[in-house]
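LOG
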Amino acid sequence: HVQLVESGGGLVQPGGSLRVSCEASGFTDSRYCMGWFRQAPGKEREGVAHIDRDGRTSYAESVKGRFTISRDNAKNTVYLQMNRLQSEDTGVYYCATPMYWGRGTQVTVS
């Protein structure tokens, strides 16, 4: 039974930093790919960052240079470090694999 649980969201001022985490359980292989997505009020969900099985990363243009996705296979956890946060980064942040989604964690920049 696979579960993805996000944590680390909160309220932060513009220009600040926050790190959200996604703890995965139930995978038989720790080398899974993972993406971070976000959904702002009244907007569609959008992809933010992705890390593949070999650790290669990719980012949305809007967060390049500010966000960093990483993983700790020993802890079965994927992180999203968010720096220089802007009000436009506000939303619910979800982690997901091709088949599973977490329930999200709220990030508010204000």
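LOG (cont.) second protein
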Amino acid sequence: QLQLVESGGGVVQSGGSLTLTCTSSTTIVDVVTMGWYRQAPGKQHELVATIRSTGSINYGDFVKGRFTISRDNTKNSITLHMASLIPEDTGVYYCLRSPYWGQGTQVTVSS
């Protein structure tokens, strides 16, 4: 049974950085789309970043150059490095291994 293990969430001060990692229990070589979405309190689920098997990357509009997504097929994982975090980045971050979702990891940015 496929499992997605997310790690790296936590509490950070405004302006700080966090790195999220999502590791799949099965190979991701042929997975077209992997990425991260988030849900902030009282808000809709929204795109953070996706990375395709071709290497093509797409970021949510709010990212504005602060986040970097990468993919390592040899480790069956993706990583999201988040910098210059602001309180509005607080939420649950979900890993996508299309069409499967992880359980989510909490990110809290304090002011």
